[in-house]
Amino acid sequence: xxxxxxxxxxxxxxxxxxxxxxxxxxxxxxxxxxxxxxxxxxxxxxxxxxxxxxxxxxxxxxxxxxxxxxxxxxxxxxxxxxxxxxxxxxxxxxxxxxxxxxxxxxxxxxxxxxxxxxxxxxxxxxxxxxxxxxxxxxxxxxxxxxxxxxxxxxxxxxxxxxxxxxxxxxxxxxxxxxxxxxxxxxxxxxxxxxxxxxxxxxxxxxxxxxxxxxxxxxxxxxxxxxxxxxxxxxxxxxxxxxxxxxxxxxxxxxxxxxxxxxxxxxxxxxxxxxxxxxxxxxxxxxxxxxxxxxxxxxxxxxxxxxxxxxxxxxxxxxxxxxxxxxxxxxxxxxxxxxxxxxxxxxxxxxxxxxxxxxxxxxxxxxxxxxxxxxxxxxxxxxxxxxxxxxxxxxxxxxxxxxxxxxxxxxxxxxxx
Length: 416
Prior knowledge:
By secondary structure, the protein is α+β, with helices and mostly antiparallel strands.
């Protein structure tokens, strides 16, 4: 228990303590905070309290406007900071609890804070690691007999995304324009995207990187994974259909990717680890790992259109449906000697489960636009309309507490 009041069902109990970047109206400086209940603990105010062997002389990382420097310190420093935070916030610890002056400077109500991107994202990679999603898309475009491409069961398929257009939750999303070819017997046209989609994803931030030429072995990959966020990788399906051959998505993905502002540390998620999926065929040795690194994270997607009083759930899924683990993704990404850096963002790809209610994209939920999704009161969707707000939430349910991620949301604005 914490001396800070935490409402039942809150995403941010003392067992969580996610990191984020925030500012306030009276102090616009971007700074590092930790969410606890409905409060934010400003680490720049209490940095002098981190005096352990891995943080001594390095407290200045909490004066930085992003998490990159802290991420770079590595897993021993992360564990040490988390232990200190849980002690400082405990109901039995008087240091912060009884120091009224320090508490008044150190805590900020979340309602009075503005949240920002957690890190300076140098590179962003999107994987394609849900077998159910890959199978669904393959059936739509190639048929059941050729649903998965020959390489899919042998390696985590991925592509390099656009880091500059990764935005924090609540940032408006402008409907993109691009080339489409609605009629196969006519030339392409330039127009606003008509088949705008969302994608339910999660992503992780890289901590310490590796030197160019030195792969990260899978047995050590978890030491390079700082924490996780929710993600919506918006997709322009009609632009994608015309452009993706032969090199894959480009403009259809580069206009916006939304992430939640709070980064949940992997230590908070370890109580919810599950056995890894059985992989058949057995992957090559550099992708084999005996340790479990699959997580039981309940995920939900809702849409609230203009004129709707409240959001309507369209998808309930779980991160446990991933076929390739985060450790496998990172090991595969670096096996060529590719260097990753603190703050790099690696995403799961669309997360779909085995039943239609757990499909993680409108492409699947509407089955390529062939059926409507009923939002009630006469509101139906196959793809997103202007004014729609898409809300992604996720949490791990413990005994008497919840490890949540907050919200990942964005509202569609008309094309310019």
